[in-house]
Amino acid sequence: MSQDHSRYSRLANITKMINMKLDLREVMEQVTLAISEEIMRCDSVGIYLPQPDGTFRGYVGKPEIINGRTLDMHVIDTHYDRLAKEVIETKKTIYIPDTSKDNRPDPRAVEAFKIKSLLALPISYEGELFGLVFLFDYGTPMNLTEDEIQAVEAYVNMAAVAIQNATNLTKKEKLLNEKQLLLDVSRDLSMYTTLQECFDSCFFYIQRVLDNPNIGVHLLDPIAQKRIRPARLSKDSDWTEEKWLETHKELDFDENTDALVQEVVQTKTYIFIPDVFKDPRPDHNLCRNFGIYGLVMFPIITMGEVLGQISIVTLEEKAPLYTESQLQLTQSIIDTMASALSHLLYMEKQDIIIEERTSEVLEKNKELQHVVSELQHLSREKELILNSAGEGIFGLDLHRNITFCNPAGALMLGYQSESELIGKSVHVIMNGQTIEREATTDTNDSYFEEYKVFYRKDCSTFPVEYVTAHIKENQEIVGEVITFKDISQRKQLEEKIKYYAYFDSLTDLPNRVLLMDRITQGLKYAKKNEEKAAILFLDLDRFKVVNDSLGHSYGDLLLKEVATRLMTCVPEGATVSRQGGDEFTIFLPLVKDEGAILKVIKCIDAVFDEPFQLHQHEMYIKTSIGISLFPENGETAEVLIKNADTAMYKSKERPGTSFHFFSEEMDIRSYETIRIENDLYRAIEKNELYLHYQPQINYKTDQIVGVEALLRWNHPEHGFIPPDRFIPLAEETGLIVPIGEWVLRTACTQMKKWHDDGLKLPSLSVNLSVHQFEHQELFKTIECILSDTGLAPEYLELELTENLIVKNTVQTLQTMEKLQSLGIKIAIDDFGTGYSSLGYLRNLPISKLKIDKSFVDLMVKDDAAITNTIITLAQNLSLEVIAEGVETKEQADYLLQQDCFLMQGYYFSRPIPPEEIYTKYA
């Protein structure tokens, strides 16, 4: 008992450390310390954690230095250590008392440390492997007993819980950090106006994720769009951008024929190559010249088009092993950058085109003037027409009348021939727009107009860019020649790019950028005028089912239809935006009261009641809505959207279209749940848990036939906490196993005390949870408790839920048979609420069925058919039957008439302390 108490204290201390979220290494050190103190004959205890390359490296242990090497220098390779491999595959403990008779351990380690005996255990929880534990000697066998091995396993189980908690916390923090990082990327990119700013921001965030500054971007040439060329290099790279570009030229490297670049462009997915010289796709000569050993290449894609690719290279022989989540996050950063980059590239392209076209036109005018001076005998009209190259050209005299026009110009202006324009005022083309300016004596006198509109014959307009040059004779201006180009397609493309910078390409709703702008402006107005505003955050329920079952094209159709229906439900001035995926946001800028919001929600509810017709498929989709109000729930767009999102998740808890207004209690409730969970870890240690016992009565004889042990918690701050509030938390956290063991030991101790004091109760009922029953040490734990307390097994009755029994029939039957072999009785609790069948009941070693309180409540009010059936079933199978939740004499009398005379409930007694059981029934 002293050893068990010491072990329990250690386990409780480790549980406390886990709950306090101390450093994982400190917890692991306590585990190894506890094991070494428990197993005195063990010379070495080591905990090994998995590595990315598949090996297991030492983490903590005793002693910290073995054969002159620290523990973290020791690596377990499953290629040599077949014992470790078997433990990993089976997730079972393996004890080798004599290594000379077993060839599974790594022979190198056995020889180096003179190991005679060895114990290997998996650190696993709920089927997931977190590491390995090894105990071994230095020449003197440990001769471990079964109890000692079980003790080690108990500590290792605590290590698994600690690692899982640390892993889950790390995952949560990582998800939050990644979400915030992408928000930061979107915010930063929305403010940049140059390519360099865009790339510097992207490089900064990529380096932050991958911890590698050697980042280069290759883009489609803004003029020759099919050619990919090196464009920018990170300023923190080990290379300079000048040397980087120069090396590309020296090696005559052509990205457009490189297999790796083309694979990224065609597949539109990233490629990660840890060792370039083991992969045939990279250009090995190029890699050697750049000093590249590892490479990851990402496509830059926007609106389905590839703009180029970004490469992150490793200039050291050992390439980092990037995780899939790191690579996906990097791709998300690049995708976020792509839309901003597309717009900037287009503007750069237009600048280049304009610059080149201006230069060409000016050069052309120079050539024309040169020809005029050499061919004065030709008319100026013929001279200009001969030198036109498909662009529109017309001439003006000093009175602004058209003197000539080339065929291309007449066609653009909608005339059948140039003769229709001759002699007419330039007003028919310019419609009053002025293009006059003071004359100069410069022979190269000309000027460029980037954007105007010209009028066609039918009075329609089209955008142009044009160059005007003076026509001179003997240094005197005699007229003008205008060369122009139709830029309608370019202007349309500019408008399209501008549109998709602020609108969702699928639904044509405002995107997040435009939404944030409208919310910001709306909140400024609301604050200035002391008005209210509201944010509605919507998420479609079961949208993933549509994509998975019908395909993404059907999902796109659904999103378009949802957008259309939502637009019909909002008042003028409101904004409906698609956030991405299946999330939508509605901004109501001027809200008088909640009634205005409820009107919108009522409309949404109505339009979602109608089925969505997706081609030949008809789908019913609901939405969950969260609402935040300005200024009550926040004064910025970010805070209001976050709080509406929080309220939306509250709505997710209810089926069908539902909504919740945000309240501070939503965050407070989550915080209180966490506090209760944390306090539960300390409840056993602080003696806050206790047992009450509810009598089980033979109504026919009015005699007590047993008691059921019921767990209670008296919290020092919150007082009595109902079991239905803290037991689910114990189930979720795994604490139900040590708590359940405490309940069983405490109840058996009390039962033995009653017997010793003269109260010979026939039966003690104790509930077993799913986690307890599935625990591999359950049978040994119960056997040990009965031995320690001195209680005979025939006085103990274990209650199992119906769903637990059918969960794993073979394993369940084996465990139940072992318990029955000890003499323990087994009852099915809450019978009729689960999924049992007569086949299971015939085969299971059970002795009693327990009728659930819900059937007893219905028995005399509405329908007694289920209760009567259970009683008849038990009688036919020669099983005892007991009804719980009996609260009235009417219920008790009815059960007795149906030949069910074993009962418990408030009609007989509430659950009471053990001393009242003794005084009342002794």
From TrEMBL:
Q: Does the keyword Kinase apply?
A: yes
Domain PAC residue range list = 447-499
Taxonomy, superkingdom:
Bacteria
Molecular function (GO) terms for this protein are: kinase activity
The segment(s) forming the GGDEF domain are 531-664
Sorted keywords for this record are: Kinase, Transferase
Occurrences of domain EAL (ranges)? 673-922
Descriptive protein name: Histidine kinase
Specify the species. Answer: Chryseomicrobium excrementi
